[in-house]
Amino acid sequence: MAASSVAALSLLLVLPLNSTLFLQSPCLSDNFYGHYKLADSTVGIFKVSTPECIEDSQTRFSVSQATTLVNPPIGSSLLWLEQEAVDDALLQTEPFTPSSFYDSVLGLESTGANGQSVLHLGDNEQRILFSSEQAILVAMRPQAALEVDTILPRFWRSTLLPESPSTYRVVSDDAVEPVRRVLETLRFNPDIASVVNNISLPQIRQDIRFLTGEDGESGILSRHSFTTGALTAAAWIKKNIEESGANCRLELFLEGFAPNVICRYSATKETNDTIIISGHYDSRGSFGSARAPGGDDDGSGTTGILSIARTIGRKKILFHKNVELVTFAGEEQGLLGSRAYARELRAQNASVILMIQADMTAYRRAQEPLQLGLPERIGTPEVTQLIANVSALYSPELRVGYSGACCSDHQSFWEQGFPASQVFERAGPIVDPMYHNSGDLSDREGFDFNQLYAIAKVQFASVLHTAGFEFAAED
Question: So what family is this one in (predicted)?
Answer without folding.
Answer: Belongs to the peptidase M28 family. M28B subfamily.
